[in-house]
Specification:
By secondary structure, the chain is of the alpha+beta class. It folds into 4 domains: 264 residues, Phosphatase 2c, domain 1 (4-Layer Sandwich), CATH 3.60.40; 103 residues, Phosphorylase Kinase, domain 1 (2-Layer Sandwich), CATH 3.30.200; 182 residues, Transferase(Phosphotransferase), domain 1, CATH 1.10.510.10; 31 residues. It contains 14 helices and 22 strands.
């Protein structure tokens, strides 16, 4: 990954006329040419700063191409420092955010971090008081563009004959205050950033510029210059020079990006890169699959098989996951397994098995490998008749909450938390298994977006068609702990294809009196019918488990009769029936 950043530091200085190369040589990947120019103008210092990133092919697919321009607040005396810090930090930190995050969330996180740093500098250093800057950032990824914006730098898009301003200036709406910013990075601890996005097409041109360019030129002249200069570097240079020739006295900075080719590879294509691989036949101990010897079958479901294998190269024991042979050629199943591998690679935590990459040349079949951990699932232990002590369930619950916290910070929902997907190693460590139906915001798979999971562990709102959320994972974790303690379910067992009715949950102490009151309150809150009464985050659940009776949580409030939909209508029907009987009685006694 290459970061290109620039600001003119001497009067009459501008960037070289040589155009930077197109960013991506691949014949199917997004390709963009970028040009930039910056000039001090009639001011003593140039407080503008701009830059862009040339990512590698993998980052190009997951994160895209990022460009940014900033204009430091002159009154602060450290405007250049603020602008440079904002641009450099966004350019570098954006690519460090998880691949599973959506573009807007990644930008929001890094812009907020830059804002907090600038605010802190202004508070700690007297000479840095008022250290602030505008910031406009553009991400081009796949077949869409994304814009993040604060201040009065601007982003324009020229698509065929349409020249559109994509940003709104954050200045005071008074003629005498048009140059006074209402919003800027570093101006206020609570920063509000504008985000927008839209479709991307080949030959689209984008212009990021400071007010030293757009103010003296106007929209019509800028559009004319972009139309006349197809080369981005020549266009950027012409825009800056024309702004100065038109009487512009401010720093003038322009960045121009021309889309040479939109990516024809979608997320589906990237995750479906293994569609040419064949599903292996059902394997027996001693058989070989590529560079692995099968030791035993660990688990099988309707769709998948999990083997313990040994690498013939390193001797390492691994787990190998593949599809059932009958699913050969089933595109949805292929996509699901590949999506699971993609997500699993991005989870770096000792609470999950870790993916062990296999190079494409060494893999002739459809599967992926991960670290192997000896032990038994909690469901297998229940099936063997094991009874879990209260203290052990609390410790297991804390590990589940930590694991869910890891997933949720990556914007991943597990959607199938249950004892069968929780492996307890021989030393007691817990591992969360099976991301087969997990969802991430950055992996838009329509086939996997329907509500999935095991019915008895699915939250009430899922049966009503509500989308999965962090609260539905927390609900499943609560049911899991409830079941480990009591071997029962708070609302009774739910069979597949059943449409259950949810009344009030049964207190776990009815089945197991030794459960402390604080833990009962915690479990009832985790499995509350109303998701608003559950723990808001996995971290909140973890804290409640760790504090225990030292700081117990309150039980969820009973849902009033008027708020219980089923009961409400039953009550109304009963009231109407009573009224009818009363009227009938009055009629008969006349």
């Amino acid at each position: 990954m290459r970061i290109v950043a620039h600001a003119a530091v001497q009067e009459r200085e501008s960037v070289p006329s040589a155009s930077p190369p197109a960013m991506t040589p691949s014949g199917t990947a997004l390709s963009v040419a970028v040009g930039y120019a910056s000039h001090t103008g009639k001011r003593r210092d140039n407080e503008d700063f701009c830059g862009f990133v040339t990512p590698g092919e993998a980052e190009l697919e997951t994160k895209g191409i990022l460009l940014a321009v900033a204009d430091g607040v002159s009154a602060s005396g450290v405007g250049r420092e603020a602008a440079e810090y904002a641009v450099r930090s966004v350019l570098s930190d954006y690519y460090a955010t998880p691949d599973t995050w959506e573009v807007a969330r990644s930008l929001d996180r890094v812009v907020d971090a830059a804002n907090r740093w600038l605010v802190a500098q202004g508070t700690a250093r007297r000479q840095s008081a008022g250290m602030a800057t505008t910031l406009s950032a553009l991400v081009l990824r796949g077949s869409r563009y994304h814009v993040a914006h604060v201040g009065d730098t601007r982003v324009y898009r020229l698509a065929k004959d349409d020249f559109v301003q994509l940003t709104t200036d954050h200045v005071w709406d008074r003629p005498d205050m048009r140059h006074v910013l209402r919003r800027a990075v570093g101006l206020d601890p609570h920063l509000s950033v504008d985000y927008t996005d839209g479709p991307l097409h080949a030959r689209d041109m984008f212009l990021l510029c400071s007010d030293g360019v757009w103010e003296p030129l106007g929209a019509q002249r800028m559009r004319q210059l972009l139309t006349e200069h197809a080369d981005p570097q020549q266009a950027a240079k012409a825009l800056v020079e024309s702004a100065l020739a038109a009487g512009g006295a401010d720093n003038a900075t322009a960045m121009v990006a021309r889309v040479e080719r939109v990516s024809v590879r979608s997320w589906r294509d990237m995750l479906d890169a293994g569609r040419h691989l064949r599903v292996p036949p059902r394997l027996k101990p001693g058989q070989r699959i590529d560079d692995f010897e099968v030791m035993e079958l660990l688990h099988e479901s309707r769709a998948t098989l999990l083997y313990r294998v040994r690498s013939t190269k390193t001797g390492e024991m691994l787990a190998l996951k593949t599809l059932q042979p009958v699913l050969e050629g089933d595109s949805t199943s292929y996509q699901g397994l590949l999506a699971e591998e993609w997500l699993s690679k991005r989870i770096v935590s000792d609470l999950f098995p870790q993916v062990v990459p296999v190079t494409g040349d060494a893999r002739a079949h459809l599967y992926y490998t991960m670290s192997y951990h000896a032990g038994a699932t909690l469901q297998a232990q229940l099936d063997r008749g094991r009874h879990f002590a209260v203290g052990e369930v609390i410790r297991l619950g804390a590990q589940v909450a930590k694991g869910l916290g890891v997933l949720h910070r990556l914007s991943i929902l597990h959607r199938d938390v249950k004892p069968a997907n929780l492996l307890q190693e021989e030393g007691g460590r817990l591992r969360i298994l099976d991301l087969g139906v997990a969802l991430a915001a950055g992996v838009p798979y329509p086939e996997l977006h329907g509500n999935a999971g095991t019915p008895s562990y699915m939250a009430p709102e899922l049966f009503a068609g509500t989308a999965a959320s962090a609260q539905t994972d927390i609900y499943a974790a609560g049911v899991t702990l409830f079941h480990l303690l009591t071997r029962r379910y708070p609302y009774g067992e739910v069979e597949p294809f059943q449409t259950p009715r949810f009344g009030e949950p049964t207190p776990p102490t009815r089945y197991r009196p030794d459960i402390p009151r604080w833990l009962e309150n915690l479990l009832l809150r985790a499995v509350a019918r109303d998701p608003r009464q559950r723990f808001e985050t996995a971290e909140e659940l973890l804290v409640a488990l760790e504090r225990g009776d030292a700081q117990p949580v309150a039980p969820p409030q009973a849902i009033p009769l008027v708020h219980d939909r089923v009961t409400r209508w039953q009550a109304i029907a009963a009231l109407l029936l009573a009224l009818d009987l009363l009227l009938l009685y009055a009629f008969l006694i006349r």
